[in-house]
Amino acid sequence: MGVGVCLTGFPPGLNRRVSHFFLKKIIPEPARLTIRTTAELAKHVGLSRATVSRILNGHSGIKQKNIERVMRVVDETGFSPNPYSNILRGKRSATIAVYLSSFKQHAVVQKLADVVHRLAKVGYTALIETAENADHADITRWIMRMRAEGVIFVGQHTDSGLAAQVRELAAAGVPHVFTENFSDAKANIVTLDRTQGLELAANHLLDLGHRRIGLMGISDKVPVEVARLIGLRRALEARKLDPASALVSVGDPPARVSNMIFGREMAQRFASGPRMPTAFVTVNDEIAFGAIEGFRTLGLAVPGNVSVIGFNNEDIAKFASPSITTIDAEIEATAAAAVDFLLSQLLKGVVISARSRLLPSRLVVRESTGPANR
Amino acid sequence: MGVGVCLTGFPPGLNRRVSHFFLKKIIPEPARLTIRTTAELAKHVGLSRATVSRILNGHSGIKQKNIERVMRVVDETGFSPNPYSNILRGKRSATIAVYLSSFKQHAVVQKLADVVHRLAKVGYTALIETAENADHADITRWIMRMRAEGVIFVGQHTDSGLAAQVRELAAAGVPHVFTENFSDAKANIVTLDRTQGLELAANHLLDLGHRRIGLMGISDKVPVEVARLIGLRRALEARKLDPASALVSVGDPPARVSNMIFGREMAQRFASGPRMPTAFVTVNDEIAFGAIEGFRTLGLAVPGNVSVIGFNNEDIAKFASPSITTIDAEIEATAAAAVDFLLSQLLKGVVISARSRLLPSRLVVRESTGPANR
DNA sequence: CATTTTTTGCGACACGTGTCTGTTATTTGG
DNA sequence: CCAAATAACAGACACGTGTCGCAAAAAATG
């Protein structure tokens, strides 16, 4: 009511702006009118709220002159209707939740960025949530409460408790997609074919004559990394080699607080342990970099004495010396495929479950791998 | 109305869940009840909506038995009131916009992560927006339309056109804070004292006997980097040295698509140019790393022939070899100070303008700097 | 049982939007 | 100038919430 009275004759907030003007005259502040609701807009152009709404929503049967008049004011003021009232009325929220495992790994963050950009391009706002400090159930319920139309999981989600939340989402009609492996049969997954990628890596090393391969960050204890192990085993078995003796692990690996530290410490463990391998596969390029630095400190040359393969094809793999042989993460392709998968469900209004798609891997051979030296 | 009828006797969506149950009996799906509104909750517990609302909002004068009954159902179902209707009613949105310059620099992303965590800890949702592909005015209006209570700018925002948006925010009563330098007198800034940081760096190099310092990524053309230049000049002038001759720039620096490439190319430019400096200060650790690799390729040892100082104290500065002397970015301290600054305004209901606070820098001396070799 | 106190119910309102229905105003055509 | 067509309006509704005033029921007290 009070607002209505204020509007009769004066644009709202005028008095405030005037006093501001008197306070310091340096900046003229051209008394820019602010329109907050369609009712204000209607009053300002001298039309009814219904007509303005019809114009805003592109209905027919309206005089061109009025359309232009309204649209000009819209352009000037940057007015757009309050999204919350529309969401409340049951319209789509134009929001998609992005459930990020962590901000720590920058390959993951790059994928996040790519996903966000692609969503923005088709008019969706990304609601970014991270699992670092909160409970899965809380976040999932928050996502549903915020009326997100879908969920994209970015990064490695290892907690199997998340499976229940995914089913809850599906039951509520909210489609989802993971961009990394996830150990639940009902989950939708669009991700790089790490099995094939590590098959490529293993074959590359075997071709170079390596017969003992050390694993850094790859273990059968973590379900999401099993795919990599399968690839390694497959390549070995194809050459009648025994994976159990060809693949070498470290008993109690250090905690992975920092990739580079982890790589360096793994290098030390391997070097001081029995059955030192001649080649190593790592879970990402930073670990590979740390390992190479670790080996160098120990007097072991790369690729002279040992070979190291990274993962992701980040900048550091390109520009470290030696540059690092690695498997490309195909970030853009994965993000594009995941977003497309989700959008197609939204378009059709169908919630898909238990579908997975693998994108082919690509080995990038650089300086960190060379012939086995025995 | 139809929903109301459905509710009289059956929890909503029961039929759907039952058919689902018959479809595959493997998972029992314990017919979990879903509560979507306070009205449904009230009907389910046999109370009036007003009473339930009073319970949910912690009013007094309610029987303990009913409180417990309602809260138990809330815990079971994870119900929470629709945030949109409350926002629409004018209640606070509990949302703070985070305006990110880019996802590319990971020191910036780390600060983003820290800010998001701190906001989450005090009950705020972060609305992350990036300026990479959109118009400042559009984003600012979107932020205001989303009823964000404040805006935190993370990363280097160089576009001076943003100043108008900041004033628009202030005029609308939305507080803001930058976490890096920004070239507008009305902006609030909480950031690292880069002037003091580069004073430390310059003094360190001067102590080592260096008299010609090359600049990588630091230029007086970019306003936000002027602070660094001032620090360098101040240190030089304190020792009666002429900044104009002591500081060496490259005429037409390459585009900064990748930090490491940029560093490597800058190394080549300097090495092939006149007046080759004996020491370099860079704008971040990755550029320093790239430069060191570039110098190594050219047969110049670090720190034997040239010294290099990075910025941020990222992992790569710690674990590269040589490890890199750098200035710590004080990410946590900056994020904490910025969030505190914004929250205090929200708490007091005051919008502050043109306040800036500088956090002290810290030089971390490592292997990439050594005595000048002439 | 009567009276007081405590607890709950009922209905309404506001927030901003898009849409619907019936009615009135304006323009167009002859 | 009149009839027909077109355009605009006014008012209502639903979405879900918190709150308010008032009435009614339930409980506690004498």
Quick take:
2 copies of one chain form a homodimer. In chain A, 45% of the residues lie in helices and 12% in strands.
Note the topology.
Two copies of one chain form a homodimer.
Chain A: H1 2-7, H2 14-23, H3 38-45, H4 49-56, H5 64-77, H6 83-88, E1 95-100, H7 106-121, E2 125-130, H8 136-145, E3 150-154, H9 162-171, E4 176-178, E5 189-192, H10 194-207, E6 213-216, H11 226-238, H12 243-246, E7 247-248, H13 259-272, E8 279-282, H14 285-297, E9 307-309, H15 315-319, E10 326-327, H16 331-348, E11 356-359, E12 363-364
Helix pairs in contact in A: 3-4, 7-16, 8-9, 10-11, 13-14
Chain B binds a DNA duplex (30 and 30 nucleotides) through residues 36-39, 47-51, 53-54, 56-57, 61-63, 66, 81-91.
Provide an overview of this structure.
The structure is a homodimer of 374-residue chains. By secondary structure, the first copy, chain A, is α/β, with parallel strands linked by helices. Chain A has 3 domains: 2-81, 434 Repressor (Amino-terminal Domain), CATH 1.10.260; 95-192 and 331-359, 3-Layer(aba) Sandwich (Rossmann fold); 194-330, 3-Layer(aba) Sandwich (Rossmann fold), CATH 3.40.50.2300. Chain A has 16 helices and 12 strands. The first copy, chain A, has a 4-stranded parallel β-sheet with strand order 2-1-3-4, sandwiched between helices. In chain A, helix 14 links the parallel strand 8 (279-282) and strand 9 (307-309). In chain A, helix 3 packs across helix 4, helix 7 packs across helix 16 (331-348) and helix 8 runs parallel beside helix 9 (162-171). The first copy, chain A, is elongated and about 85 Å long. Mean pLDDT of chain A is 88; it is low at 1-29. Chains A and B meet through helix 6, helix 7, strand 2, helix 8 and helix 13 of A and helix 6, helix 7, strand 2, helix 8 and helix 13 of B. Chain B binds a DNA duplex (30 and 30 nucleotides) through helix 4 and helix 6.
